[in-house]
Amino acid sequence: MYLIDTSVWIDLFRQRDTGPARMLRVLLDQRLPYGITGVIYQEVLQGANSERDFKHLRNYLGSQRFYHPTDFVRSHAEAAHLYVRCRHQGITVRSTIDCLIARIAIEHKLLLLHNDNDYLHLARIEPQLKLARGLTP
């Protein structure tokens, strides 16, 4: 099962030919299961170019499977700890939200499909984070 990060949705909607966007197209075309988080949902909606696009995205993504922290307080603490562990290794994670998304992927044993270098850094520090590889041309 895949967790699709905001970065991949952006690539797909902007018709960028990236490996992760190609992989998402395959998942969608073959109706393979995937999910998102509430934060990913919000980030994608915030990128809508018009009211019409917003409503379309809200309806489509709102009907998908959502993954949530398994334990709200513990999950957020673990996400923060992941950020701290990176910082102690000299790695600056640009987005604290990425730490939470990574934590949710770990908790649900999901492959995280992304196009964001933060996750590469996080996976080096936390081996439980499993990243999906995009498709090459």
UniProtKB/TrEMBL annotation:
InterPro entries: PIN-like_dom_sf, PIN_dom, PINc/VapC_TA_RNase, VapC_family
Similarity annotation: Belongs to the PINc/VapC protein family.
Domain called PIN: residue spans: 2-124
Entries under Gene3D superfamilies matching the protein: 5'-nuclease
Purpose of the protein: Toxic component of a toxin-antitoxin (TA) system. An RNase.
Keywords from the UniProt entry: Hydrolase, Magnesium, Metal-binding, Nuclease, Toxin, Toxin-antitoxin system
Protein name: Ribonuclease VapC
Species the sequence originates in: Nitrococcus mobilis Nb-231
SUPFAM superfamilies: PIN domain-like
Magnesium as UniProt keyword: yes
A single GO molecular function term of this UniProt record: toxin activity
Cofactor: Mg(2+)
UniProt feature coiled coil, ranges: none
EC number from the UniProt entry: 3.1.-.-
Superkingdom field: Bacteria
Positions contributing to Mg(2+) binding: 5, 98
